[in-house]
Design a protein that fits this description.
The strands form 5 sheets. An 8-stranded antiparallel beta sheet has the order 18-15-17-16-20-21-19-22. The chain has a 5-stranded antiparallel beta sheet with strand order 8-9-13-11-12. By secondary structure, the chain is an alpha+beta fold. The longest helix has 20 residues. The chain is built from 15 helices and 22 strands. The radius of gyration is 23 Å and the shape is globular.
Length: about 475
């Protein structure tokens, strides 16, 4: 979805006051009313049907928690104003970027959703970093940065995500084997804490807040601006598509490639076949500008059953799935995703178990499987398994044609598979359709849970932010609750 231009605001829908008696937003302030006038905004707070329906919808099309208003901020100050207002009047707030949550994580039932698409300025691009607003799409940053021959060291497979939304989760991709996640390549943040303070934080300034927010699922502060690392970018990508008859052949080849770091990009897929089964694909990318890679060296010891090699411009490779994802999104298909981090030692066993029952229809959209290095994931809020290597298993399901019962069955399957992964020492990459309670989240964070609770109390003491994640027990919504 494109950035939202402030000129495209829906005329006549702006809110000017809030009536705490029945939690209604008003477009006018009647005389002798007990309603509270909203402080001046550079953007608009709206309550029209189209805005509320969009804010109660996400890529998953599974959860629909309707807010009572949507803020389209014209400045960072608007975010500060809204969060402070929410604290004063017992409201909850969530931020929606490009709407690529799958289970209502960025929704705010009866609260206010901040649409970050109107905060989408790329402020600066230098040889080693970029300063961008939270609503900027990675696609736009990559396009502009490549003009100067630089790019982020890691890219998610889909570039249509917002910077702020990605940094709330982690941001993993095929180059994470060399550089960690996008949160590991973030240098500084400007955030609005849950109690309404505008703070700039980094590893050197307010480091506890910095570490709480990166991968913090929107629980402690709203990211409004980020400084992210850039590196020199190649001109071309040589992409190797290697096929294997068995999943263990794939994972063995991936471990070999990971061990010596031969590919700049390393992923893998479970690809449906015509006979209702799967073939297994290693995707390896080697970047270059003038001197092509050595094919023989890159393929040595990988023993694929089939090989395809293609050279494409680097930007085309990074942006290869954009149009496909946009087309799928337009179909509004239920998408009960599951993304799990599995310890290397049990990956083959768990995936083999899964393949005994997984059909291409239940895999749905894309199924990914690839390894990365534990030591490169440095942000403490991002939970990954112990051990030197872990695998990402991503079942990016889409139910076509839409079928609510089928979607619910797949969510139940997600719950069961996640329980199996958790019991084996794994973790979730939290962009999933899972039935999770606060007790489940305590298990997810493990020994870190006391720190998570401390940070919530410190930065969002009234529990204003991002209720859709369901991490914490609900707190009183009474205005002025300490």
């Amino acid at each position: 979805m494109a950035q939202l231009d402030r000129r495209n605001f829906l005329a006549g829908a702006a809110v000017v006051a809030f009536d705490p008696a029945d939690s209604r937003w008003l477009s006018s302030l009647p005389e002798n009313s007990t309603a509270i006038q909203l402080p001046p905004l550079d953007g608009e707070l709206v309550t029209d049907e189209e805005a509320l329906t969009e804010a109660a919808t996400d890529y998953g099309h599974l959860a629909h928690r309707r807010p009572r208003a949507v803020l389209r901020p014209g400045s960072v100050d608007d975010v500060v104003t809204l969060v402070r207002f929410a604290n004063d009047h017992g409201l909850v707030v969530a931020v929606r970027g490009q709407g690529h949550s799958t289970f209502g994580q960025a929704q705010a039932d009866c609260g206010v959703v901040i649409d970050s698409r109107t905060l989408a300025t790329i402020h600066e691009v230098t040889p080693d970093r970029a300063v961008v607003d939270a609503g900027v799409q990675w696609l736009d940053l990559v396009r502009i940065a490549l003009v100067d021959g630089v790019a982020p060291p890691v890219s998610t497979d889909f570039l249509g995500l917002s910077v702020g939304g990605t940094l709330c989760v982690g941001g993993i991709g095929g180059a994470s084997q060399h550089f960690g996640m996008l949160v590991d390549n973030t240098l500084e943040l400007q955030v609005v804490t849950g109690d309404g303070r505008l703070v700039t934080c980094s590893a050197d300034h307010e480091p506890e807040l910095f570490e709480a927010v990166l991968g913090g699922l929107g629980q402690f502060a709203i990211i409004v601006r980020a400084t992210v690392r850039l590196v020199r970018a190649p001109a071309l990508a040589r992409v190797y598509t290697l096929t294997y008859p068995q999943v263990t052949d794939l994972t063995a080849a991936q471990r070999t490639a990971l061990a010596d770091g031969r590919f700049d990009y390393l992923e893998g897929q479970l690809v449906p076949t015509d006979d209702d089964d799967f073939t297994f694909v290693l995707e390896g990318g080697a970047w270059y500008t003038t001197e092509p890679p050595d094919d023989a060296a890159l393929l040595a010891g990988l023993a694929p059953a089939g090989v395809d090699v293609a050279d494409v411009p680097y930007f085309e490779w990074l942006n290869r799935v954009y149009e496909t994802v946009e087309q799928i999104e337009a179909l509004r298909l239920p998408s009960p995703w599951l993304n799990a981090f599995i310890p290397d030692a049990v990956t083959d066993e768990i995936v083999a178990e899964l393949l005994k029952t997984l059909t291409p229809a239940d895999a749905g959209g894309v199924a990914l499987l690839y390894p990365t290095r534990r030591a490169l994931v440095t942000r403490p809020q991002v939970v990954v398994p112990d051990g030197e290597v872990f695998f990402l298993l991503a079942l990016l399901r889409a139910v076509s044609p839409p079928d609510a019962a089928h979607a619910e069955r797949l969510i139940a399957d997600n719950d069961a598979l996640y329980a199996r992964v958790l019991a084996a020492g794994g973790a979730q990459y939290p962009v999933n359709a899972l039935h999770l309670t606060p007790a489940d989240w305590r298990t997810h964070y493990g020994d870190r849970w006391p720190v998570v609770m401390r940070d919530k109390d410190l930065y969002d003491p009234r529990g204003v932010l991002t209720p859709g994640q369901g991490i914490f027990e609900p707190v009183s919504r009474a205005p002025g609750t300490p």
